[in-house]
Amino acid sequence: MASVRRVLDAAYAAAAGLAAASLLLIFLVMMAQIGLRQFGEQLPAADDISAYLCVSTTFFALAATFKRGELIRVGMVLDRLGPGARRVAELVALSLAAAMVAYIVYWTAQDTLFSWEIEEMSQGTVALPIWVPKLAMPIGAGLLLVAVLDELVSVLRGARPSYVVAAEARAASGDFTAEV
User: Fold this and answer.
1) pLDDT tens by residue, 57-93
2) DSSP secondary structure of 122-157
3) Running DSSP on this structure, what letter comes out for residue 81?
4) Choosing a second label site near 91 at 20 to 30 A (CA), which of 82, 109, 118, 127?
5) Residues near 39 by Cβ (< 8 Å), separated by ≥ 6?
6) pLDDT digits (tens, 9 = 90+) for 129-162
7) Long-range contacts for 151-159 (Cβ within 8 Å, ≥24 apart)?
8) Exposure of 152 in the CB half-sphere (CA atoms within 13 A)
9) From CA 157, how far away is CA 150, in angstroms rounded?
């Protein structure tokens, strides 16, 4: 079981690394665009590339953000429940989240597959097979689904959700940066 945990944690970290790399690439594209403007030039498809990288950044960061308890959660009701009722509420919330994320995975995968099947190309300055940037959506959402199911199984086994433990650890250290 420890090896499965290591593989899952490595997958979440790798996806977060891809999100960070995407964010860095957005910065580099923007800086290149600014630099080229000084010479009266433009980077072809800079806006399109930045948009694709924004989607990539968002979707690849979802699983790691969820596991660290940094996604927006409304704990006003959960925080007032006793341990047994809270566990049931967490199970219900995780089950609903798994169903919704599975729906997102299905439809983003269908959309990406359709773009590949019809050989859809971007309409910008640089023609790019549109399924390539769309691929970040089902992959990132799929990893989020794995993370939600990971938490669901963990809570079913009696453990506290890792996102709760992580949020409490941040609060105990005086770090409220992720709290809204």
Assistant:
1) 999 999 999 998 887 776 777 878 899 999 999 999 9
2) --SSS--BTHHHHTHHHHHHHHHHHHHHHHHHHHHT
3) S
4) 109
5) none
6) 999 999 999 999 999 999 999 999 999 999 999 9
7) 151/66, 151/67, 151/94, 152/91, 152/94, 152/95, 152/98, 155/87, 155/90, 155/91, 155/94, 156/91
8) 15
9) 11
State pLDDT tens for residues 2-55. Answer: 899 999 999 999 999 999 999 999 999 999 999 999 999 998 889 999 999 999
Which pair of tokens denotes residue 66?
């969820």
Contact in structure between 134 and 108 (CB atoms under 8 Å): yes
Contact 15, 64 (CB under 8 A): yes
Measured in whole angstroms, the distance separating CA 83 from the mean position of its chain's CA atoms is 29
CB 25 within 8 A of CB 53: yes
